[in-house]
Amino acid sequence: MRKFSQALKWGLFFAIFPIIEPYFSPPDLLFIGRQKIFIVLSIITLTWIIIEFSNVLRYIFLEKFTYDKEDNLRERRVVTQVAFIRRLFIIAILVIAIAAIWGTVFLYVDITVEISKINTKLKEILEATPFWGKKVQVLQVTD
C-alpha cells in the first residue's frame, strides 16, 4: 500500500505540473512539461501506478481466498489464474507504454496497397515534424 501511495504522489505531480507550469515559468523558456523526457517519465509513472494498483487488488484478493482448509484446490486454482492474468496484464501495459514512447502506429490495410507509397508518405510526415530525431524511420510489414 505504501508503494501505491508513492506512485500516486508521483502521478499527481506529473498530472498537475504541466497545468500549472505556464503560470510560474519565465515566458522565454520552453515548458518542461512538453519535453520528451517529461512525457516518457509520465508514461513510466502511469505504468507504475497501474502495476501497484494490481498489487493492491492481488493482496485484497488473496485475503479472501485462504489456504487454511484441507481441500484448497479451488483457492489454489483461482490464485494461480489471477497471478497469470496479472502478469499478462503487466506485459501488455509495458508493450503499450513502449509503443507510446516510440510513437508506433499500426495500419491494417489490404494486400493490394503499395508499400513504397506508404514509405514515401512516412518519410514526408517525419520530415515535416520538429519532434523527429532523424535517427529512426522504420516501416515494418507483417502478416
Blueprint (SSEs and pairs):
Blueprint (H helix, E strand, L loop, with lengths): L1 H23 L11 H29 L8 H30 L12 H14 L15
Quick recap of the structure?
The protein is an all-alpha fold. It contains 4 helices and no strands.
The averaged pLDDT comes out at 79
Task: Assess the beta-strand content as a share of residues.
Answer: under 5%
Order of helices and strands: HHHH
For the termini, the CA-CA separation is 43 Å
How does the helix and strand content classify structurally?
mainly alpha
Instruction: Calculate Rg over CA atoms.
Output: 22 Å
Task: Give your account of this protein's structure.
This protein is an all-alpha fold. It has one domain. It is 67% helix and 0% strand. It has 4 helices and no strands. The protein has helices at residues 2-24, 36-64, 73-102, 115-128. α1 (2-24) runs antiparallel to α2 (36-64) and α2 packs antiparallel against α3. It starts with a helix and ends in a 15-residue tail after the last helix.
